[in-house]
Design a protein that fits this description.
By secondary structure, the protein is an alpha+beta fold. The strands form 2 sheets. The protein has a 5-stranded antiparallel sheet with strand order 3-2-6-5-4. Strands 1-7-9-8 form a 4-stranded antiparallel sheet. Strand 2 and strand 3 form a beta hairpin. It is globular and about 55 Å long. It starts with 7 loop residues before the first strand and ends in a 10-residue tail after the last helix. The N terminus is likely disordered.
Length: 267
Amino acid sequence: MGLLSHIEGGVTASPSPAEKSEGLLAKTEKLMGAGKITFSAFIKANGLSRCAIFSPADKTYVVTHSFGLDINSLFSSKSTKDFWEGITVEEDTWYDFYSLDHSVNVLLQLFSDNLKDLTSEINVCKCNGKILLVIKEKDERLEMDNILESFRTLVFDPEVYVPNFKEITNPVKNTYKLDFSAFFKLSSITMTLTEKTFVYIRQNMKNEIVHWISSAFPENCEVSFKDDICEINLYTLNPFSADLFAAHLKKASISFFGKAWEDVKVA
């Protein structure tokens, strides 16, 4: 099956994933404190379709948080301090780059060819030493002042992804495990980063992988990482075959992985 390996499956008498979700949300709200939001909440609250946060690491800047990017864009994201100082002269100020006047070209080197074709405008600002890029497609409209204000309140850990569960009577719990250790090793070599720096990229890749898998199965799906192993619990009315799971997930995630999909080795 290439990337995917079906490990085990079975019937659960009465799992309550919705209750688990409520518990995770309550725990997160308590840890966040008043006025603080997670990165995933920031994305949802502002209706962002694509964005990236560049953070300083090992004398460079790398994408430590992203949403809607593909793997080749993450590979291309390594940049220098001088590069960003030339673009973001002042903090808490939006700098706008457009495809119509080709000013956006200075930033397109950071992204894959596929993303370049979709990009109409990129808005950039620096806040607390981090660089936020908001990537827009044609005719996309966003409240940039609100985005900057909420960006100032971001707390990046802990991060919790909670699906919208539907009630299913006596659901079947289908469990899958995906081993990404070889994938991350190859990614590190591709980006020519030290392990100290790549730790940020690897975590962001995990977050993006969780996002893409959750998007493929938006209801009744729990996705989490333990080290480099991605564990998926899918609750369905009837058993969900590994082949069907693999086909559906590949179709939904190929825009993220591209050719790298087949490079991942299953343990």
